[in-house]
Amino acid sequence: MNRIKTDVLVIGAGSGGLSVAAGASQMGADVVLLEGHKMGGDCLNYGCVPSKALIMSGKAAHAQRHSAQYGVTNARGEVDYAAAKDFVSDVIAQIAPVDSQERFEGFGVKVIRAYGRFISNNEVQAGDTVIKARRIVIATGSSPLIPPIQGLDKTPYETNETLFDLRDKPEHLLIIGGGPVGMEMAQAHVRMGCKVTVIEGDKALSKDDPELAGIALQSYKDEGVEIAEGALAEQISGTAGAIEVRVKDGRVFKGSHLLVAVGRSANIANLDLEKAGVETERNGIKVDASLRTRNRKVYAIGDVAGGLQFTHVAGYHAGVVIRALMFAIPSKAKTSHIPWATYT
User: Fold this and answer.
1) pLDDT band at residue 143 under the 50/70/90 scheme
2) Which of 263, 258, 265 is nearest to 199 (CA)?
3) What is the CA radius of gyration of the chain?
4) Structure pTM?
5) Structural domains in the chain?
6) Among 111, 124, 130, 134, which residue's CB has the most CB atoms within a 10 Å radius?
7) Count of C-beta atoms within a 10 Å radius of residue 311
8) How many separate helices (H) and strands (E) can be counted in the chain?
């Protein structure tokens, strides 16, 4: 077993973790960064970047079909779905070097490509290496929440982590969840020629300003998206190409593909947090206003801290933590100034 010591250990190479690692290392700290999956985390690989690239493909097709108002003859705007997904992959590849292991090693960060788990209040094991750190920052992000709907485990479905690998265009995409992920993908897919039904247990875009949400939802409907609100999914069945969703009030929705987009779940299951004395809550790790856990050596930032789940919030959290780690400046995270946007 290899044993190393460091000033700052960062667990997770998503937007928050990378910001802490870059900032701390460039200010002279000895930094170790752990990542067991993909560098860049959810935003680069499954979230902000691929979703906005796919939205751009849909926008291009939509613009061709609605160009007459600008004095340009409308065109059919035919979509090659697989080629659109290749475009998404190309956009990810263009940005990937910014978040790469090589770039961060160039900053002086020791990058270990393995998942980490606590073995004491200031030690983490990653593969065959044990890292003892003065301060530890947990930035493990979140994953798609999979709801306990009867039959879902026996039915093929997509999440934001698999949808961008799909190369065959869905004939009829059923989307469970009318939040930002579900609605953004609904519009992108209807513009690319898919039939789309959004199945929402409450109200679609319920966390956005009601007046603005109403305008956006009407636009979705005008473009052909079917939005079923007050439709709590109760049972799911079917096989690839023939999916059926039955909701609590008896309605049944049929489609060829299913996207589950009902929220996010903090990535904490395999960290062995109890060995570090770190407490958790329903939404993630319990932190104080300075993003510190009950273990004063350990901080948690970004999605895993249980607050607003946005890339720019993770970056903001990184700044709060760096001020405490590097300058011992009391710093607290606030949310009153944090904006967010649903892209339509």
Assistant:
1) very high
2) 258
3) 22
4) 0.95
5) 2-39+100-144+265-327 (3.50.50.60), 152-263 (3.50.50.60)
6) 124
7) 20
8) 8, 18
